[in-house]
Design a protein that fits this description.
Layout: H1 3-13, E1 17-21, H2 22-34, E2 41-46, H3 53-61, E3 65-68, H4 71-79, E4 87-89, H5 96-105, E5 108-111, H6 114-123, E6 129-134, E7 156-157, H7 161-171, E8 175-179, H8 189-203, E9 211-213, H9 231-249, E10 254-257, H10 261-264, E11 268-279, E12 284-288, H11 297-300, E13 307-309, E14 317-323, E15 331-339, E16 346-349, E17 370-375, E18 378-383, H12 388-392
Parallel strand pairs: 1-17, 2-3, 2-10, 3-4, 4-5, 5-6, 6-7, 6-8, 8-9, 9-10, 12-14
Antiparallel strand pairs: 1-11, 11-12, 11-16, 13-16, 14-15, 17-18
Helix pairs in contact: 6-7, 8-9
The protein binds pyridoxal-5'-phosphate.
Residues 46, 48-49, 67, 69, 90, 181, 184, 215-218, 258-262, 354 line the site of pyridoxal-5'-phosphate (PLP).
């Protein structure tokens, strides 16, 4: 996306502002799906990464399904026009009532604990299910986003396979899918293939299985020098392993993935304005018109987001601590080299498509930013900026005599 387009959108819609490049999302999705050379491929977009209706509709138009982790995400998917059969519900630690709602809505359900598996067998033996396995392969660079390790709360441990088998046989459960999601930031195809081999050994135990879902965890480059998953090379290697398994089993399974970050991260830009340049005895702060209420990944995951000065790209390079306006320590970047920042300059955070707007809050009573999607050069406001009224909407006016 050209800087001029970002500046122009910020002029129209104000700051701070999230901007998404629909063409980039489309290119990412197409590259992803074309990387796998298998007979049957199904990609569910993990919509917790970015869940605006316009984005969901874009994925629908591309032929994707949806991976949802809450019943509300399921409902948003249905609102966007997805059919229930194209939605995979992969929740964690939810109530039995929420599973019941999912059954009513008719979406595919992925079970990640033995209690629920038994519950389905006892009460809904006719409902086909996926089972989420935890293979205990440590993967990913950050403990917070790595969900396949031994202590992880996700999935049913592969060591409990005998229990799963016993419950499935006894209650005659129709297991159509086996699922694994080892966590974010996997760079190495071999880690994935190792998880795949483990999963194949699970699939072999259930003759009703037709879908094998390998979740996600594809790495994107956050720093200019970062490596990202080479999806073409990965797809080639992985497809071979998958096709070999199908051949060995004499059965055509559907290969499934559920990328979030990979398809939307680099399509997002977060535009902010510098409110203040503050020189202290040890450093120079750039104070922005935003904080961790709008972009929490740097503080939450210690994540790096590349920052550029849109208003002064050719300015002299200087070293800054880029911080927010929230009354907490909310540092976006320390000792970061950026073209000279002046009061009022527009700064852009790159890779702001995934887990940025969806993680925003109203902390410090700040409205959340507007969101814009650019489609073939034209920008559409897909979420307006919140107002004070929005913040007050759920608060009740009550008369209490204190
Ligand atoms: C969050 C999530 C994903 C997407 O992960 P990314 O790293 O964003 O690609 C996929 N599957 C499940 C079950 C998830 O919870």
């Amino acid at each position: 996306m050209k800087n001029e387009a970002l500046i122009s959108a910020a002029k129209t819609h104000g700051s701070p502002l999230y901007i998404y490049d629909a063409d980039q999302i489309k290119a990412n999705y197409e590259q992803f799906t074309e990387a796998f050379k298998v007979e049957k491929l199904k990609v569910h977009y993990a919509c917790k990464a970015l869940n605006n209706q316009a984005v969901l509709k874009l994925f629908k138009s591309l032929g994707a399904g949806l991976d949802c982790v809450s019943i509300q995400e399921v409902q948003l998917g249905l609102k966007a026009g997805f059919q229930a059969k194209d939605i995979l519900f992969t929740p964690n630690n939810i109530s039995t009532e929420e599973y019941e709602e999912a059954i009513t809505l008719g979406v595919k359900i992925n079970i990640d604990n033995l209690y629920t598996l038994e519950y389905f067998g006892m009460n809904h033996p006719d409902i086909p299910v996926y089972i989420r396995i935890n293979p205990h392969l440590m993967a990913g660079g950050n403990h917070h986003i790595s969900v396949g390790h031994i202590d992880s709360k996700f999935g049913i441990s592969i060591h409990q396979l005998p229990n799963i088998e016993r419950i499935v046989q006894k209650l005659n459960i129709h297991v159509t899918g086996i699922h694994v999601h080892t966590g974010s930031d996997i760079l190495d195809a071999d880690v994935f293939i190792k998880a795949a081999e483990l999963l194949f050994s699970v699939v072999e135990r259930f003759h009703t299985v037709t879908h094998i879902d390998f979740g996600s965890g594809f790495k994107v480059a956050y720093r200019p020098e970062d490596l990202h998953t080479d999806i073409d090379a990965f797809g080639k290697k992985f497809s071979e392993a998958f096709n070999d398994f199908c051949e060995k089993q004499k059965k055509t399974y559907t290969l499934e993935f559920e990328p979030g970050k990979y398809v939307v991260s680099n399509a997002g830009y977060f535009i902010t304005k510098s409110n203040l340049i503050k020189q202290t005895t040890s450093c120079t702060f750039v104070g922005l018109d935003t904080g961790f209420n709008h972009l929490i990944r740097p503080m939450f995951y210690n994540a790096y987001h590349h920052i550029e000065n849109l208003s002064n790209p050719a300015g002299e390079k200087k070293v800054y601590n880029v911080v927010g306006y929230v009354c907490e320590t909310d540092s976006f970047a320390l000792d970061r080299i950026i073209s000279e920042v002046r009061k009022g300059d527009l700064l852009v955070f790159k890779n702001a498509g995934a887990y940025c707007a969806t993680m925003a809050s109203n902390y410090n009573s700040r409205p959340r930013p507007a969101e814009v999607m650019i489609v073939e050069g034209k920008d559409y406001l897909i979420k307006r900026r919140e107002t004070l009224e929005d913040l007050m909407r759920t608060q009740m006016e009550v008369e209490i005599n204190y």
